[in-house]
User: Fold this.
Amino acid sequence: MPVARVTLLGLLVSCFIMMNACSQTSANHSSTGFYVGSTPCDSLIRSILKIPADQTCDFIKWELHLSHPDNFHLQAVYGASKPNTNGFINGTNITVTGNYTTRPDTTINSSATLYQLHSEKFLSPLLLIELDSSIMHFSDANKNLLVGNGGWGYVLNRSNE
Assistant:
């Protein structure tokens, strides 16, 4: 009987440790990483990136590096889409560096984090909400998730570079 109690106690302790480790992993936010994606080129994003209204911009391809201590490097390409490809006819490159701040944002879900990217090259901060450790979603100043179109959404996905 004592062996059974020790085994049961060991099993319960092991389960508790595993559950605790799993909950900490899902609650931690990345704060560093490499994210990629393609988004529409709507008026809000055009405005933040200072893309002239007379330039053709069907969509934007993003590469975002978040690093410590709270710095970012953004490489983006935009322009007219090349038919039947995921490229551009004549793409225009944008390179932006700056810093970012984070804070919890429970308006979307209990573990979301709001990232505010700041740069002199932006008209206003670029807002992203980390929904989990591998997905960043663009939002407006009111923390509403941006809605894409039939071709592109407003999501960046974690990549291994």
Q: What stands out?
A: The chain has two helices and eight strands. The two ends are 55 Å apart (CA to CA). The first helix runs from residue 2 to 27. The chain has a mean pLDDT of 84.
